[in-house]
Structures are given as structure tokens and as C-alpha cells.
Design goal:
Layout: E1 4-6, H1 13-21, H2 23-26, H3 39-47, E2 50-51, E3 54-60, E4 64-76, E5 79-88, H4 97-112, E6 117-123, H5 127-135, E7 139-150, E8 153-163, H6 167-170
Parallel strand pairs: 5-6
Antiparallel strand pairs: 1-3, 2-3, 3-4, 4-5, 6-8, 7-8
Length: 171
């Protein structure tokens, strides 16, 4: 299946809300509790969910199958990097769509911004996402002990990174 990334349309907002706020859609590693149902609409009305500090794009293969997101992280006084993530809808998981979407987002961010580094993290037992990141060209950089709180306890994470120089070798 070929995937594309596109801007979020108003009709996508209920889909995004389900993927970020409903336990049957978020997946085990993304369920952080119920979210404000108006937050996405307010941000979409403000900037279409794409701004200088990050954004959200829909993953599509004709119909929406998920989303990718990125946010600016300050590295030091002279620079920043992007932190990215995604959620694929339950019916489309395990088909390689997330891997392809991550490749597209990496290419997009390197082509349209001056950053040298993009990173992503996931819980230490989310093996499917770890495989997807590695297939997308990311390098496992380390374990983040007790980095994320979910489901009433702290979870270890795994940090992955990709730099511009990796593009010639991986994508």
C-alpha cells in the first residue's frame, strides 16, 4: 500500500480525536486518558495543526489511516531538533504504513527545515514500533529509564535518532 502525508482537514478532526483520546483506537502504548475534545479543533482553527514549533499531518492511502506529528525540541542556544511520533488506526497496523509514513516525514522535515537531527521514542516493550523506526532508518540510541507515565506507573522508553548524513544510507 502506498501512503501519502497531507494537511489535516476539518473533517479529519473526529478521526484525530479518536486516535488520541479513545482507548480502543490509541493502542496500548498511547492511551494516556481522556483528552479535551475541543483542543484539536481550537489548534486547527488557529494554525491548521502546522506551525513553526511542530505539526500534525494525516497518513492516507486514499482514506485516513493515521497521523504523524513532530515538535521542536531545543538542543542548545544555537539549535533545535525535531521529536516525531505517529499513531496508525487499529485496522491498518502491522502493514508497514507507519514505517512508510515515518520515512516520508523524515524526508519532509529534512527538506523543509534546517535541522540536522530527528528523534523518536517509544516504550521499551513496543517492539512493533521499534522495528518500524529501524526500518525507517533510525538508529537505536539508548534506554530512557522511567521516562513515561502511563496506566498508573512509570515505563522505560527507547530513544531513536536519525541525522541528515544518514539519509544517503537509509532512505
Amino acid at each position: 500500500m502506498t501512503v501519502k502525508l497531507r494537511a489535516v482537514d476539518e473533517d479529519d478532526l473526529p478521526f484525530l480525536y479518536r486516535l488520541t483520546s479513545h482507548p480502543d483506537h490509541t493502542g496500548l502504548h498511547q492511551w494516556y486518558g481522556w483528552q479535551n475534545p475541543h483542543r484539536l479543533r481550537r489548534r486547527w482553527e488557529d494554525d491548521g495543526l502546522v506551525g513553526e514549533d511542530g505539526g500534525v499531518l494525516i497518513i492516507t492511502n486514499d482514506d485516513p489511516v493515521g497521523f504523524v506529528s513532530w515538535s521542536k525540541q531545543i538542543a542548545n542556544r544555537a539549535g533545535f531538533y525535531w521529536s516525531m511520533g505517529l499513531i496508525v488506526a487499529p485496522d491498518f497496523r502491522g502493514k508497514g504504513l507507519g514505517t512508510e509514513a515515518q520515512k516520508l516525514l523524515v524526508r519532509y522535515l529534512f527538506d523543509h527545515t534546517t535541522v540536522n537531527r530527528i528523534e523518536a521514542s517509544t516504550e521499551i516493550d513496543n517492539f512493533a514500533e521499534q522495528r518500524a523506526l529501524e526500518k525507517a532508518g533510525f538508529t537505536r540510541e539508548g534506554v530512557l529509564r522511567g521516562a513515561g507515565f502511563r496506566a498508573g506507573r512509570w515505563h522505560d522508553g527507547v530513544l531513536y535518532g536519525i541525522v541528515r548524513a544518514d539519509l544517503d544510507h537509509e532512505l
